[in-house]
């Protein structure tokens, strides 16, 4: 009877020891899983930070380019106005057809330049909006 009880006691002790060991194993496994998850999230955050810095730099660069393009457009508009005023003052010196041909050439080239700058301006605005 005593041997039987001792054997049952040993079995129970074994089960208890197994239960004690099992949660430890489970805890270690959970810790490792959480560490892996944390490492993945830190890597994702680092990648996100790099991309945000890159986009911020690109945004600033596009804003500077947009500002310089707008400045150039304003300068060209002023030049066109001055040129038209000067040509109005010189109308007496030129023949009408010669003057009109010169005005058409100048206006065409300026219009083409303005169109190019407007298109570039539009594309820069789209890039800024996208960023």
From TrEMBL:
GO biological process, one term: positive regulation of canonical NF-kappaB signal transduction
Keyword Coiled coil attached: yes
Record key words, sorted: Coiled coil
Record-annotated membrane-spanning stretches: none
Entry protein name: TNIP2 protein
GO cellular component terms, semicolon-separated: cytoplasm
Positions with biased composition (Polar residues): 15-24, 92-104
Region (Disordered): 1-24, 83-104
Keyword Coiled coil: yes
């Amino acid at each position: 009877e005593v041997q039987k009880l001792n054997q049952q006691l040993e079995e129970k002790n074994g089960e208890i020891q197994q239960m004690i060991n099992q949660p430890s194993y489970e805890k270690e496994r959970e810790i490792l899983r959480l560490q892996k998850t944390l490492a993945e999230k830190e890597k994702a955050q680092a990648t996100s930070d790099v991309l945000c810095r890159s986009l911020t730099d690109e945004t600033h660069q596009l804003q500077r380019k947009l500002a310089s393009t707008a400045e150039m457009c304003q300068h060209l508009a002023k030049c066109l106005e001055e040129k038209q005023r000067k040509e109005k003052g010189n109308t007496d010196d030129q023949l009408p057809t010669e003057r009109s041909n010169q005005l058409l050439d100048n206006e065409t080239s300026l219009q083409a330049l303005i169109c190019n700058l407007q298109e570039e301006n539009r594309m820069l605005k789209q890039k800024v909006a996208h960023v």
